[in-house]
Amino acid sequence: MATGFYYDERCMWHSQGEHALYLPVGGFVEPPANGTHVESGFIKRRFRNLVEVSGLMAHLDLHSAPPATRADLERVHPASYLDRFKMMSDAGGGDMGEDARFSPGGYEIAALAAGLAMRGIADVMSGKVSNAYVLARPPGHHCLPDRGMGFCLMANIPVALEAMRAAYGPARVAVVDWDVHHGNGTEAIYYDRDDTLTISLHQEACYPIDSGRVDDRGKGAGAGFNLNVPLLPGGGHRAYLDAMEVLVVPALRAFRPDLIVVASGLDASGVDPLARMLAHSDTFREMTRILMAEAGALCGGRLVAVHEGGYSEIAVPFCGLAIVEELSGHRTGVEDPLLATLIGNQPAPDMADFQRARLEAQARKVFGD
What we know:
It is a single chain. The protein is of the alpha/beta class. The protein has a single domain (about 5-365), classed as Arginase, Chain A (3-Layer(aba) Sandwich). The chain has eleven helices and 14 strands. It has helices spanning about 40-55, 70-75, 80-90, 105-125, 155-170, 185-190, 235-255, 280-300, 315-330, 340-345, 350-365; strands at about 5, 20, 25, 60-65, 95, 95-100, 100, 130-135, 150, 175, 195-205, 225-230, 260-265, 305. The protein has an eight-stranded parallel beta sheet with strand order 4-1-8-14-13-10-11-12, with helices on both faces. It has a two-stranded antiparallel sheet with strand order 2-3. β2 and β3 (about 25) form a beta hairpin. The protein starts with a strand and ends with a helix.
């Protein structure tokens, strides 16, 4: 079986209007040359194009998907939220929350993004593909049930997981979020449930600035099933691999999921405009390799990555290509032109040791001595 790759050009047509970085233009915020919001189809399309021109697409099973239905969406989002979103979308667009703007047709595009995640997960669960990468937008991991946030308009991964559970019955799912920003939406949706382990690796106090704390472990039935791993700015490659070794892998092995889903933001790269980490394409390659090994040992290899953030037009394509190469087992001849520079930019060993000591202290609290 091949790796599934899920994409629809219509998702790239989602627009938040004219912005400078992510700030609406106006007042003293001068329009830039292209007026493009930092979360644009332009960057994700470059990722898809590199997969194609590298020759890797020939080894993938490429699909689109129908949009999520109203019934699919209502398993996660209340009718009042969906009604308001649809009404504003039909009326020309608007804003569903904090930094959650959209243009006409935004509702339909967001439902399509959720539908792509649904099909990727369904195809892996049914054995049609061995694993999958879902390249969709708008992203979803900040979206709360009743409020958009952080460029996210629908909770793509939870919508897909609840559709999967409706089709296949109860399932234990681990969501590993390596977007550089805290996956607060996914956390909120599953905070009181024990069937979904939510793990977020993120730059500490980046976005949202008041969430993603170590002590936020879930509540009620979900106590102990939420794991936040805040990393110090500039931690780079070793910080992510240490976090995987010390916290993520032990948590996965203790939980024993039926499926692992990655919230695959690529904004931890060393040149991303919305974060201050120093990861590079080999960071994402190694994290993918680690999760593939755990999926192979724990859940029959069932692993799906669903794209979230990533705002560097040069870094995102190479980081994404590294992930898909690893998932598919096909290495292209593409060389990341940033890799040598970012390897040279890594923090000094004493900083890396300090970060690891923090992770080990957290692991003692989570797992005991």
